[in-house]
Design brief:
4 helices
Length: 119
């Protein structure tokens, strides 16, 4: 029960700012910010996991059985970092492809001058 309360309190700022969502662009902006925060936390956790296991690997110099299991943990941590980086890159490519940002280019919008003005 305490975990549910803690998780609910962690998301109170996001729930309170939900009133600012007025259209699809603001929704995608908020979801992108949440996704970037989660991915940054995952990268930090995976990096610390790899560093922790490398230190354990160095400390277990005498026991080859322990080194083997810790070595596989280091490998899976690096695989996790690669997967997280790949997902982050895929999201960046998709968001740039479909222009899911709030900056609409005004220079590309054609203007119709009617009736035509003769100089």
């Amino acid at each position: 029960m305490k975990k549910i309360i803690a998780i609910t309190l962690a998301f109170v700022p996001a729930i309170a700012s939900a009133q600012a969502i007025t259209d699809v662009n603001s929704l995608t902006y908020k979801l992108t910010n949440i996704g970037n925060t989660v991915l940054a936390l995952l990268v930090a956790f995976a990096f610390l996991y790899v560093v922790f296991n490398v230190v354990r690997y160095i400390m277990a110099a005498e026991d080859p059985e322990k080194r083997k299991s810790i070595g596989s943990a280091v490998m899976w941590g690096l695989v996790g970092l690669f997967v997280i980086g790949s997902i982050w890159g895929l999201v960046a490519v998709l968001s740039n492809t479909f222009r899911t940002n709030n900056n609409v280019p005004t220079q590309n919008i054609p203007v119709l001058n009617y009736p035509p003005q003769v100089p």
